[in-house]
Every structure is written in C-alpha cells, then in structure tokens.
Amino acid sequence: MRKKYIVRLTEKERQQLYETIKRLKGTNQKVRRAHILLKADADGPCWRDKEIADAFCCRTQTVENIRKQFVVNGFQQALDGKKRENPPTPKLLNGEQEAKIIATRLGAPPPGYANWNLRLLARHVVELELVPSISPKISVF
Questions:
Q1: Tens of pLDDT along 21-70?
Q2: Of 15, 36, 14, 130, whose CA–CA distance to 81 is shortest?
Q3: Residues 113-135: pLDDT tens digits?
Q4: Which residue among 72, 98, 114, 127 is buried most deeply as judged by most CB within 10 Å?
Q5: Is 96 found in the same domain as 57?
Q6: List of residues 6+ apart from 62 with CB closer than 8 A
Q7: Contact at 8 Å (CB) between 78 and 33?
C-alpha cells in the first residue's frame, strides 16, 4: 500500500532531530518522535511503518499519525506533539487534604457499614470540614 504522507526532511531538520536524540532534549515522547521521523525520512533510511513500530515499541498507527502531522502541520508540531486544547481542570484538593482522605479511607468504616464507598467517604470528608464540598450533591450548606 502506498503511503499517503511522505516525510522528507531538510538537512537542518535532520540535525535538530539528531541533536534531540543525542542530548535527550525534551520528553521521552519527543525523543521517540525524533527517532520515528528520522527512520520515516524518504531521503534517508525510509523504513516501512511496521519496521519503525517494531523498533520503537509503538503501533503502526502512531507512526502514520506522526507522518501525517509532519506533512499537514509542519516539522515543529510533529516533533513537539499537539498541544492540549482544553487544559486539565485544577485540582480540588491539596496534598494535605488528600492525605487525610486516604488515611480516613484506610481506617475502619463507620458503624453499620462493612466498607467505605465514595458517597460515604465524601459525606465524611464534608463533616470533618476538610472541604466545603466534594461533590455537587454533598456540601456543608
């Protein structure tokens, strides 16, 4: 089957990829993408997707996606990866609150209960006034 997206690296791009690999600059995903782009280069080794996937322990779909990103969005985005459109929501609890909840969960459940469940734990955390609310249905007010 013919490849739809062909990777052709310039000498400058190749040097940047070698530099990323040599110095392990960036995340392990970035280094893996650099390896994949170098092996997928039509003017270089030009490995098949299956060979690349086997060599770097990933799926062939991953290799195809990186090649597609290179052709459609450019070298830098293919190397760095796509940025998140929606950043993760901020944490509701700090480390001390989390530790208290874990300690409560590891302790004995209240009388009349065999185990802790999420609803019971949430109610107990609000009663201890660790947080004003832990879920939409359970709050101090």
A1: 999 988 999 999 999 999 999 999 999 999 999 999 999 999 999 999 99
A2: 36
A3: 999 998 899 888 888 888 887 76
A4: 98
A5: no
A6: 36, 53
A7: yes
Q: Strand, helix or coil at 45?
A: coil
Same domain, 71 and 113: no
Total tally of structural domains belonging to the chain: 2
Q: Does any domain span residue 6?
A: no
3-class secondary structure, 7: strand
131 falls within a domain: yes
Residue 62 vs residues 7, 56, 67, 78: alpha-carbon distances, Å:
14, 10, 9, 11
* Residue 75 sits in the same domain as residue 23: yes
Does pLDDT of 17 surpass 80? yes
Residue bearing tokens 């209960």:
113
Domain annotation covers residue 5: no
Take residue 35 and report the two structure tokens written for it.
């390896």
Amino acid at the residue 86: N
The total of other beta-carbon atoms located within 10 Å of residue 3's CB is: 14
Task: Give the phi and the psi of residue 94 in degrees, each rounded to 5.
Answer: -90, 180
